[in-house]
Amino acid sequence: MKRQPVRILAEGIKLIIGLIAAVLLMHFSGIGCPIRWLSGIPCAGCGMSRAVLALMHGHVREALKLHPLVLLLPPGALLCAAYALMPERFPKKAVNIALWGTAALFVIVYTVRILHHDPVLYINLSEGMLWKMIREVKNVLSKLW
User: Fold this and answer.
1) Taking the domains of the chain in order of start, what are their residue ranges?
2) pTM (2 decimals)?
3) What's the number of CA atoms in the CB half-sphere (13 Å) around residue 143?
């Protein structure tokens, strides 16, 4: 069954509104990256938002320092839009290979960045909300006994 162009556009608009709302919520709440906020460990996409902003301002070198895979976003977005409009033109196997390949690339780049002590990817478990909650529970329990 073919998807209606109006329905695709409506879904795209809902997605964009949801993403903007999530970004605004994280920005104004001070959370930033929800994974780092919760665990104190950066995610594989850490630095990507700042890299996109740098790229939008024409600072390619700075963007690549913030996240080496930032240049995959523009063609990736175009491919996603094309797939949303014409899914029948994309072989399922090719789509799966592209998705798994991109995920593998993110994991490889993340691992290399961690091993080379990339300053964007600092790990500080004591800053994570989980660690703070554990510390607080331990504090309360110590007062009970």
Assistant:
1) 33-144
2) 0.70
3) 5
